[in-house]
Structures are given as C-alpha cells and as structure tokens.
C-alpha cells in the first residue's frame, strides 16, 4: 500500500537552546529536518511528505525541500499533538496509511522503516518503532521532598516509544479527536489509539534512532549519520 509521511517540525527546541529550532541545525552536511525527510522519501512506498512547520518559521522556505513537488507544507500548533493533527488535515484519504515521524529523529534506518511498514499493514490498527528498556527502572515515592525510591519496576514489559508510528489516517484522526476531547495525556500517536481501546504493535527498532533533544545529542547524531550514510 502507499503511505504518506507526516513530519512534525514546528517545535522551538527549547532544551537545545540553539540560535534556531534544532531541526534547522546542520549535521553531516544537511539540516536535521532534511535528513529525516530524505530518509522517509527513500522508501518507494512513500511518495508524499506533509511537513508541519511553525507559521513564523523563516528557515523552511530557504531549503530545497520547499520547492519539492513531493512535499506539502502546513502550519503547526502549540503542542506536538496539534501539529500532527494539522498534518493529518492535509490528508483526505481516510484509508491511507500515515507514518508520523519526528523531524528531530534524523538517524532512523531504512530497515526499521521497512519493518514498521510490514508490521503495521499486518496489524489490526497500526504499529510503532520502539526499543526495550535497558536500564533498571525505579519508581520514586510520591510527595517526597527528595527523590526516594519506592520500588523497582519490572522492566520486562517496558519499551521506549520512538517514531515513526504508522496508522490509518482516518483512524488516527478519530482517535486523536476522541482522546483530546476527554483530556487524555497524548504524548505520541499510539497513546491516542490506546485511549480508544486499540492495541498498536511494538516493532523493535534500533536504539540509535534518537530524538535530538539536548546539545550533547548533536555529536552522537552526527556519528550515527556518518555510519548510516557510508
Ligand atoms: N513539534 C511540533 N510542534 C510542536 C512541538 C513539537 O511539530 N508544537 C515537533 C518538533 O519539531 C520535533 C517533534 O515534534 O520534531 C518532537 O518534539 P520535541 O523533541 O519535544 O521538539 P521541541 O518541542 O522543538 O523541543 P523542546 O521540547 O525541547 O522545546
Ligand atoms: Mg517539545
């Protein structure tokens, strides 16, 4: 099946604290956003990418991507979920598969994209890339001044949710609408579907598909990109 990518790129990058939003920082010869979008477009099933940018963004129009016929640009919102919602509004085929991928994850590998695509299309409602938790997990006691351990959480069933996350456009839009109307905490696409009673599939992806978040992530992302682009 064909698949449309939605790339939320309307954040300000407050934790990166750079002179511009982090998706416009250059690593390994290109902006982080360009790396992310080009990886998605290298999948033959993805022939169209909806990029969600801030209304006042002066950087996007300067990129070659701005004149690429495979790209649609839409305005973002205050929160990531609003930006994703805005991206979905540009897709009129409810039955189309959408792959939502953070602009800030430039190191995703083609193999993982392919695996996700196969898993989603075989699933009931969709799938996400994720990695099993590696560290011992602690739950802190509530309402204590200092951080004190309450107990160790069994990590057997714990995963880190990554992107891309792949769902049917209509189903994702509906789930986001329902979840937002009921004030559910929605930090990724899957959480909206979970809220509506669906069980998206976890596809084990690579841990180096990091979300560039803080300054120290830049060197790591550059290293991974150099490996990947060899
Ligand atoms: N994003 C978005 N619209 C928002 C907020 C975030 O499209 N209102 C996008 C970001 O551009 C990024 C992705 O969602 O590609 C993941 O968000 P995050 O890593 O939190 O990026 P920022 O919100 O920009 O960073 P910070 O939270 O440090 O400000
Ligand atoms: Mg953010």
Automatic annotation (TrEMBL):
Query: Which key words tag this protein in UniProt?
Result: Isoprene biosynthesis, Nucleotidyltransferase, Transferase
Q: Which terms does the record give in the GO molecular function aspect? A: nucleotidyltransferase activity
Site (described: Transition state stabilizer): 15, 22
Under which pathway is this protein filed? Isoprenoid biosynthesis; isopentenyl diphosphate biosynthesis via DXP pathway; isopentenyl diphosphate from 1-deoxy-D-xylulose 5-phosphate: step 2/6
Name the source's superkingdom: Bacteria
| Top EC class, one word | transferase
Q: Which InterPro entries match?
A: IspD, IspD/TarI, IspD/TarI_cytidylyltransf_bact, ISPD_synthase_CS, Nucleotide-diphossugar_trans
Feature type site, description Positions MEP for the nucleophilic attack: 155, 211
Swiss-Prot/TrEMBL catalytic activity = 2-C-methyl-D-erythritol 4-phosphate + CTP + H(+) = 4-CDP-2-C-methyl-D-erythritol + diphosphate
Q: Name one Pfam family in it.
A: IspD
Coiled-coil ranges per the record? none
Q: What does this protein do?
A: Catalyzes the formation of 4-diphosphocytidyl-2-C-methyl-D-erythritol from CTP and 2-C-methyl-D-erythritol 4-phosphate (MEP).
Q: Which family does it belong to?
A: Belongs to the IspD/TarI cytidylyltransferase family. IspD subfamily.
Q: What is this protein called?
A: 2-C-methyl-D-erythritol 4-phosphate cytidylyltransferase
> What's the source species' lineage?
Bacteria, Pseudomonadati, Pseudomonadota, Gammaproteobacteria, Vibrionales
């Amino acid at each position: 099946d064909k698949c449309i990518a939605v790339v939320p790129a309307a954040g300000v990058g407050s934790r990166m604290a750079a002179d511009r939003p982090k998706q416009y920082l250059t690593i390994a010869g290109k902006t982080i956003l360009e790396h992310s979008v080009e990886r998605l477009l290298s999948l033959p099933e993805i022939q169209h990418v909806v990029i969600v940018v801030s209304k006042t963004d002066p950087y996007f129009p300067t990129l070659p991507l701005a004149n690429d016929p495979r790209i649609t640009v839409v305005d973002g919102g205050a929160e990531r979920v609003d930006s994703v919602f805005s991206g979905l509004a540009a897709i009129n085929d409810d039955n189309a598969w959408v792959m939502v991928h953070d602009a800030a994850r430039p190191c995703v590998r083609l193999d993982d994209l392919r695996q996700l695509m196969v898993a989603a299309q075989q699933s009931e409602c969709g799938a996400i890339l994720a990695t099993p938790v590696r560290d011992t997990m602690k739950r802190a006691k509530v309402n204590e001044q200092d951080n004190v351990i309450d107990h160790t959480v069994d990590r057997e069933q714990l995963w880190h949710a990554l992107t891309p996350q792949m769902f049917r456009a209509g189903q994702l839009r509906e789930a986001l609408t329902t979840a937002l109307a009921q004030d559910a905490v929605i930090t990724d696409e899957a959480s909206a579907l979970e809220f509506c009673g669906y069980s998206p599939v976890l596809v084990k992806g690579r841990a180096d598909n990091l979300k560039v978040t803080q300054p120290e992530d830049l060197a790591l992302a550059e290293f991974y990109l150099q490996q990947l682009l060899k």
